Amino acid sequence: MVTPAWDAGSSGSLRRLEHQQHHQGPIQSVASTPSARISQTTPIQDPVVASVSLKPGDAGLVSSLWMVIFLLHLLAVLALIIFLAVRGQVNKRSDFRPAFWYLPILAATGCSAIAAAVWLLVVLRWPSRAVKAAFWFAPLLTLALGILLIYAETAVSLAFGVIGLVLSLGLSLYACWVRPRLPHANEIMASSLPGTHGVAGRMAAFVAIALAVGFIWSSIWSLGAGGVAAARPRFSVVYIVLLLFNLTWTMEVIRNILTVTIAGFAYMRLGRGVNIDPGEAWRNAWTTSLGNVCLGSAIVPPIVALRGAARSVSLVSGDADEFLFSCTACFMGAADRLIELGNRWGFVHVGVYAKGFVAASEDTWKLFLLHRMEPVIDLDVTSSFCFLSGVAGGSLSALLGGIWAAAAAKEKAYAADVTLYSFVIGYFMNRITMSWPQACVSALHVAYAENPRLQQHLVAPITDRIQSLAGSAGHNLKPPQGTENSQVPTP
Prior knowledge:
The structure is a single chain. By secondary structure, this protein is mainly alpha-helical. The chain contains 18 helices and no strands. It has one domain (15-30, 58-451). It starts with 14 loop residues before the first helix and ends in a 19-residue tail after the last helix. Keywords: Membrane, Transmembrane, Transmembrane helix. One of its GO terms (cellular component) is plasma membrane. One of its GO terms (molecular function) is transmembrane transporter activity.
């Protein structure tokens, strides 16, 4: 039996593993108990897939640079928070009551962490029911949040309240529109979540640590936001923008550290048929891969937003107007190029091969294009499910903090601030826990793209989806080479 190596000092988990596979044949799991064992799959790559570089790569100078930038940015923001908190205490307005501002936010933050953990348990236990529930709870909770913001009767709260009502309507229509895609989401989650079976306790501990770190930083962060609310300085908008940028990047880094850990483990189990040490995967994500995680966390959200906007414009414009169509095509071309340079599937190769994030994103996307998986990726609603889970969790957190602040504070402007900040914090808390199922799905996508001849029970949802989309498009396309008899005997 071959023991796979996971060395934090190496460039990836596959450096020794691939060497051993080359000399000793198919790799077998290191698990010794039936509960921790998964069916073994022989890693086979056809010549077309092998043309894409899948060799381990070192993070390099760029990774170290981004890690330094992120840590320096944390120190700078921490200094800014201290400055704003002290200034707010010294120059606070007479109508500002710290207890009525900080306590609701802290309570909402704590409850959002608990709710996120409970929701994760629901997702892991009943994934199909959770997917369906998220698409209906998110619009309802967003509607309630919009009504609460309108009740605050300030210019900012009215604007966000109207946005909340419109978003609620849009999410409701979207839920109806994507309803035919939900069965595929249920199937892909059912196939990918077993990638962490047997180590759920270890993974849950990592999630708990991430939630604790997120709670601590959000609590510290609220001191700076409270300082701005207390003193209302001249550059309040600038301070708030800087604080929100920091919160977004920091929480994304925490979330994607989990993504790299879980995706790396799930990929090795689903795609290679081996078990690695989850603790080493976790430590590598915090150390060796941290710079790439920081880079990916900074560029993936804006790229995803830009590509989503481009796809929406393309869907609305169609080809009715030649000039508009040409502009839309240019917009889509730029968005497609950017998604090649930064996408969430790149985190899988970061965790497995320790590649630079941009190189990892390019390699995974090339594999998707080779196997005609781009439509499958674009129409997959598991990412929408994770997003809507965050929206629902953020709305629930905002309702708790906002109602408390509205009942306790005399100044409604403070209640509006508490509501909005609680939503942002609650959203990211829930996205941290949703990194678990999303990482498993990403790992299965990448494993299939590297080797379409995985076992049938793993790849059937993807193969069936490719054939279904090809048929609906009027093309007689065959599945990727080697998937006709995708079941591989276990060694």
